[in-house]
Amino acid sequence: MLTRSDNDNDRQVRARARAVRDAGGLAQALAKGSVQRLIETTLSEALVLGLLKQGVRKYFAIFGHGSTDLGNVLRIYEEEGATRTINCRNEVEMAHAATALRWQYGEVSAVITSIGPGAMQAFAGSLASASNGVGVYHIYGDETTFGEGYNMQQVPKEEQGAFGRMTAILGGSYVLHTPEAIRDALRRGALAVNHPYKAGPFFLLLPLNTQPARLTVNLAGLPERPALSKMAPADDAALDQAAAMIAKASSIVIKAGGGTRGHDAALRHLAEASGAAVALSPGSTGVLPDAHEQNMHVGGSKGSISGNFAMAEAELLIAIGSRAVCQADCSGIGYKKAKAVININGDLSDALHYNNTVALTGDIGVIAERLAAKCAALKAASNKSAWLKACAAKKAEWAAFKRTRFDCPPLQDEVWGRPVLAQPAAIKIVADFAKSVDAAKFFDAGDVQANGFQIVEDDRTGDTYTETGASYMGFAVSALLASAAADAPRYSIAFTGDGSFMMNPQVLIDAVEHKVRGMIVIFDNRRMAAITGLQLAQYGIEFKTNDRVAVDYRVLASAVSGVHAVFGGDDAATLRAALTSAHAHDGLSVVHVPVYSGADERGGLGAFGQWNVGNWCEDVQDAWIKQDL
Fold it and tell me: What SS3 state is found at 552?
């Protein structure tokens, strides 16, 4: 039962929330004097105010007994319009949605769960933000600090701070055992989620009994979001060395990693000034226009004919914003003829991943522009015509190869018992439709993702998001929920397989609840086709990667009121009509597309690199041992 003092406390909380809303932020409220610098409050409100000072006003939450006090503060702040909380049905889903909100829209948010299983779920989902360098706050309930006995759902072990230790492995972590440590916790968190090169999740663990604990807080002393200057080499010595290497080399490949996203102009200037062919990573499509003559498309374990040719044949590698992921550099043997490396990266360990490296550490855009200017002065591209001609021939070969897949008629499928679209043809139709309506594309893990980054034809950063860092099944469909929280939402389409969709189908309910306008396209081949293909390629036989259970996803999705579900059909014309119908709906739409899986090679786009898995390990490792880089 509430006491008089509890009511008084709520009124004080409400007054501060209203003042923050009216002023447009905590810093502004402090400047106006509508909020006092020194206040007495609970740890829960101190945290909400501290995050507001960093510009964090949006939360994805599943409340439980481990977060009741924090939930009550957020209730008051939302009622006063100072924050917004989006309630979800699955912790993995909301971790993905928060990741997408930062990745797509640049907005930092926080994920809130209870203690135990919910926190475990969100922790698992945070792998996507950690793997892709996306900063998100995670706030979990934690065991009480008095040690009075096991709390329900805590880790049942006679040790202290188990969750704090686990979360510290995946990102920054702080257990708020002492409420007065809030300033230090938020300072560390601000740097972790806003780090310019190695952002990731930051975990705040709130013991159940410290959330309502009262403390004196100096709001002026709470940290703001850091404003960091761009860094670059202080002198020109390393840049001059790199430019001379570029001018001398006759064949160069730029490996554009995920860090190049948003540096489109600088990358293009360096490519043109150096005469380098550009091989993309799965996550960097669009950093160079698709039709640009030096864009060789994706290179790596999956890769493309042209991208892998450029990687394998170049004598000089310029790695930019790449962390040498196994699938991006073919487990370290993608650059078979490269004798030296120029590596542009903000992180020292990534910049020095290869031997024989000139490391240019700092901001990618600044360094690439400075290096491009030096290359232009040396006319470094003048001796690369033969190289670029050879690359252009491979790009034409790749285009012709893809066309045979895109023009493939429906193929007779054993499971469906009728001709259905091959997956490359179906994905191309949906990707073209996305471009025609200026929709962002999210690709889920698996065969859809692997074919997708070979197919998309982007001309700018931000048109495609493919979570290849963790390849987390269910990421794409969950990512649509980000638009419910975004200040300026963009229509987005999730490309997902039947398996990935079933990892997070509760997004159907959450999307309707929070008025998401977007589309899910389910490419249904009734199997884990990416793994089936790998099994067949390595061992000649499939094992336990399919089932006999047919699911009518149109009917399933239609069971959720507000979802517009349509059958995508078995041919191109029907699919295009279904996409038009889905896009016209003012809400969430689902399009179910049966796709082919079988022995016909036109059912996929193939692989063109090496990968250190299965019975390929011996050959790949043998090649890696002999690699000088």
Answer: coil
Predicted confidence band of residue 528 (pLDDT cuts 50, 70, 90): confident
Closest CA to 478 of 163, 222, 180, 136: 136
Q: Shortest CA distance to 462 belongs to which of 444, 482, 438?
A: 438
Count Cα atoms within 13 angstroms, Cβ side, for 230: 8
Q: Is residue 184 pLDDT above 60, yes or no?
A: yes
CA dist 536 and 533 (Å) reads 5
Token pair of 378, please?
């040396």
What is the spatial distance between Cα 513 and Cα 327, in angstroms, rounded to a whole number? 38
* Terminal-to-terminal C-alpha distance of the chain: 69
Model confidence band, residue 6 (pLDDT cutoffs 50, 70, 90): low
Q: Which CATH number fits domain 237-399: 3.90.1150.10, 3.40.50.1220, 3.30.450.20, 3.40.50.620?
A: 3.40.50.1220
CATH architecture of 407-603: 3-Layer(aba) Sandwich (3.40)
Task: For residue 348, give the nearest of 361, 335, 329, 330 by alpha carbon.
Answer: 361
Distances (CA, A) of 366 to 197, 338, 480: 14, 25, 33
* % of residues, the chain, pLDDT over 90: 89
Instruction: Assess whether the region 14-221 and the region 407-603 belong to the same CATH fold.
Output: yes
User: Crossing angle, helix 385-406 and helix 305-313, to 10 degrees?
Assistant: 150
CB 180 within 8 A of CB 40: no
**Domain positions in the chain:** 14-221, 237-399, 407-603
Q: Does domain 14-221 have CATH number 3.40.50.970?
A: yes
State the pairing for strand pair 518-524/492-497.
parallel
Q: What is the DSSP letter of 330?
A: G
- Check: CB of residue 261 under 8 Å from CB of residue 461: yes
Q: Compute the distance between CA of residue 340 and CA of residue 2 in angstroms, rounded to an integer.
A: 70
Beta 418-420 vs 411-413: how paired, if at all? antiparallel
Closest by CA position to 125, among listed 449, 474, 519, 493:
474
Q: Which residues of 578-601 are buried (b: 16+ CB within 10 A; e: fewer)?
A: bbeebbebeebbbbbbbbbbbeee
Provide the 3-class DSSP secondary structure of residue 38.
Answer: strand
- Is there a contact between 193 and 202 (Cβ–Cβ < 8 Å)? yes
